[in-house]
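Aim 2 progress. For AraC family transcriptional regulator, the working sequence is reproduced below.
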Amino acid sequence: MSKEKIPIYNIANLAAQPLDSGDFMIESLTSYVGRQPLHIHNAHRHTFYHLVCFTGGKGSHSIDFIQWPVEVGQLYFMVPGQVHSWNFDVRPEGYIIHFTEGFLRGFLLDPNYLDRFSFFSGHAADCVVRLASPLREKVVTLLAEMTDEFHGHSGGGVNPDLLRTQLVQLFLLVQSGVAAPRADSTAATTQKQQLLLALRKLMDQHYKTLRRPSEYAGLLYITPNHLNSLCRDLLGRSAGEVIRDRVLLEAKRLLTNAGMTVAEIGYELNFQDNSYFNRFFKKYEGVTPDEFRRKNVMK
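Predicted structure tokens for this construct:
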């Protein structure tokens, strides 16, 4: 049985005109959607960071199996590895950007710079942002300027460093509109958020083998009670539920791949007993793995 995973695209697969290094592109969304093959509307992953700003259109989009309607002024941000799909009723308008981690690595001294932006957390609930005026207009104007620069319409050839500067400016503008700082925000709150980010990175690395809060607490050098309190304070869920949800998310991602049987997916996720995997999935998702697959499998 083939072990081929859900389709994964790089920028060169999708861009009409990437930079020479293939690590950045920006394009009008109407143009981009119009020239893409139909299969990208089914669930797939990217090897790069991906963001979209909608200025028009109707339909929906899904990030890690959570669906949102297309709305004017909405932006969504994705990190490498997330699963998404589109379903447009009216061809959308706006802008789309793809960039790799390497595009900014040599430009910024801090290799973890993107971690400061909540919309790059890699968690679907944080990925979608709706901007109000006048910030929305500022963002759209900046995206138009970036598009002109990328396609050489500004004269003098493409300047990658100018695009890098504009990209960081875009992130800062959007983050300023996500949420105003709380009056009671403290260093302790920031420390909790950094711990949560570290937990999420550890779960991404070890979700197949580590399932107990005590194991992650040990890696974070905190007690299991501290970890549980952290998750309840910031997410409203226990540490065990957060860890379980990460396993469930990966199960759903793999189930969109018709090249793996349910038993193979259970084994891939370290469920030695296929019946246990089926019970686990149905208990927390409400349907069996086969039922979920029938609803979400690529056509």
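Residues 26 and 164 are 12 Å apart (CA to CA). This observation will guide construct design in the next reporting period.
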